[in-house]
Amino acid sequence: xxxxxxxxxxxxxxxxxxxxxxxxxxRWSVLVVLTLADGQKRYGELAQRIDGVSQKMLTxxxxxxxxxxxxxxxxxxxxxxxxxxxLTDLGRSLLDLVSGLEAWATTHLTEVExxxxxxxxxxxx
Length: 125
What we know:
Blueprint: H1 16-25, H2 27-35, E1 41-42, H3 43-49, H4 55-67, E2 71-76, E3 82-87, H5 89-92, H6 95-107, H7 109-123
Pfam families: HxlR
Keywords: DNA-binding, Transcription, Transcription regulation
InterPro entries: HTH_HxlR, WH-like_DNA-bd_sf, WH_DNA-bd_sf
């Protein structure tokens, strides 16, 4: 019996796999996943750890990650209300990928900065 499903193609702009790549490749998403790697965090802890993220972008990122099943949001009935975020099993499956990206960026930072300097010096001539 043949499947009517089409193979996902992220190079096709209408394919859902491209949306998944956009979500997990977004800088804020990568940083949220890395921050949640060692367990659940409150919104304020995430905001404090991820330097430069605005409240609006952090909220949008967390909602998108929750929608995609990568993060869970738990609201505790307390005063004041407490909200925790945690990686799901699906989100934890991204850890090797995003940790590898972090490791590559930190390992090769000097080389990238040198390449930028060479490039920028070339374009100033």
